[in-house]
Design goal:
There is one protein chain. Helix 3 (33-45) runs antiparallel to helix 11 (276-290) and helix 12 runs parallel beside helix 15 (384-402). This protein folds into two domains: 4-23 and 293-402, Aspartate Aminotransferase, domain 1 (Alpha-Beta Complex); 35-290, Aspartate Aminotransferase, domain 2 (3-Layer(aba) Sandwich). The model has no long low-confidence stretch (mean pLDDT 96). The strands form four sheets. It has a seven-stranded mixed sheet, sandwiched between helices. The chain is globular. The chain contains 15 helices and 15 strands. Helices cover 41% and strands 16% of the residues. By secondary structure, the chain is an alpha/beta fold. The structure holds pyridoxal-5'-phosphate.
Length: 404
């Protein structure tokens, strides 16, 4: 059984700020001591550059860095460590696929499909490459609860469709997308699919092989790891079709003034000195998360979300943005007559961290005709008593503004 009360003790931030109620986990999660220790251990005991030095600590740094690749592969069900490219985050992973994979093959008149709920990170890279190549960015519509229509998707695919990029879970309202079905439909026409796993990887059991995803991307900082480290998983055939887009040290075979040749994937996509400490921290985060059963994580977060939703519904003027069902550990909402930023600011003054705004999904806000929403997002260290405290404050705000 998951014991959130005990889990909290692993996170020093809650000792430092005993009154902190952290409901901004979709933005970034807090870091357990083991992750902080792993990074400190690297800098204290075996800090050296990787793949180069022949002395002991360099060998250890290289060995620990490369071992995490296998750990990540295992964690997401990838066939091999060779399918795992270290990047600086989800954003960098998507940009790499857009420029390297699509950049090489996209022609005028081709199409890339995304959904109406994508984070800007899974929108702008495709928009830019489509503009550069004269291709079209098509947008899968959703309904007001965030459901995509698979029938519409089916008929919108053509020989010109070169890629579908879809978030597994919407960062704005938590909607879980039917990625397995989308991948099946796409593969019937040999169209590759990129899954943005930024919001799913910490909560769901991910098996990229079973899903048959072509690309799966995520950031370390949303699963208790450090910032500045992310992952691109790609099928071997796709990695082999991709050319490096950043050039320099640690990715070459031979260099002369006339020409250079490059290492094979994944190393050819990791030019320069990478975020070694970040990789080691990510390894520790995966170890930390792996001690819990993902089914229990999912069940606990579902229970917490349902509880929070039922309590929020007690507030007059509350409206959920998105769907009661089919949602992950995120609640997006508006309250009649109160600006989302005011809710976040007042809660912030009481040490309750939530997020307000467009959540990097401006086109989605345009579709919903909202200036923004307030968003609570939960993790395994959150408690029902924290929800109660947040509701108490929100009731107070409401009573103050509109009378009890
Ligand atoms: C669904 C989704 N995609 C992409 C990103 C971008 O992640 P990062 O800023 O770590 O690159 C986020 C971050 O919030 C996200 O929620």
């Amino acid at each position: 059984m998951l014991e959130p009360d005990n889990i909290r003790k692993d996170f020093p931030v809650f000792r430092e700020h005993p009154d902190l109620i952290y409901f901004d986990n979709a933005a970034t999660t807090q870091k357990p001591q083991v992750v902080i220790d792993a990074i400190t251990e690297f800098y204290t005991h075996f800090n050296a550059n990787i793949h180069r030095g022949v002395y002991d600590i360099a060998a250890k740094a290289t060995e620990r860095y490369e071992a995490v690749r296998g750990k990540v592969a295992n964690f997401i069900g990838a066939p091999s460590a060779k399918n795992i490219v270290y990047t600086s985050g989800t954003t960098a992973s998507i940009n790499l696929v857009a420029q390297s994979f699509l950049g090489a093959q996209l022609k005028a008149g081709d199409e890339v499909i995304i959904s109406q709920m994508e984070h800007h990170a899974n929108l702008i890279p495709w928009q830019m490459i489509c503009k550069a190549k004269g291709a079209t960015l098509k947008v899968m519509p959703i309904d007001r609860e965030g459901a995509i229509d698979l029938g519409t998707l089916r008929v919108s695919l053509s020989k010109r469709t070169k890629l579908i990029a879809l978030t597994h879970v919407s960062n704005t309202f938590g909607r879980i997308n039917p990625i397995r079905e989308v991948i099946k439909i796409a593969h019937q026409k040999n169209i590759p699919v990129l899954v943005d796993g930024a919001q799913s990887v910490a909560h769901f059991d991910i098996d990229v092989s079973d899903l048959d995803a072509d690309f799966f991307v995520f950031s370390g900082h949303k699963l208790f790891g450090p910032t500045g480290i992310g992952i691109l998983y790609a099928k071997e055939e796709h990695l082999n079709a991709m050319q490096p887009i950043v050039f320099g040290g640690d990715m070459i075979k031979n260099v002369s003034f006339e020409k250079s040749s490059f290492l094979s994937a994944p190393q050819c996509f990791e030019a320069g000195t990478t975020n070694i400490a970040g990789v080691i921290g990510l390894g520790a985060a995966i170890d930390y998360l792996s001690q819990y059963d993902k089914k229990e994580i999912k069940a606990y977060l579902k229970e917490l979300r349902e509880y929070a939703l039922s309590r929020l519904q007690e507030i007059k003027g509350f409206s959920l943005v998105g769907s009661e069902e089919h949602s992950s550990a995120i609640i997006s909402f508006v309250i009649d007559g109160v600006h989302p930023h005011d809710i976040a600011t007042i809660l912030g003054a009481h040490q309750i961290a939530i997020r307000a705004g467009n959540h990097c999904t401006q086109p989605l806000m345009d579709f919903l005709e909202l200036p923004g929403t307030s968003r609570m997002s939960f993790s395994i260290y959150n408690l029902k008593s924290e929800v109660d405290r947040a509701i108490e404050i929100m009731q107070e705000i409401h009573d103050l503004m509109f009378g009890a």
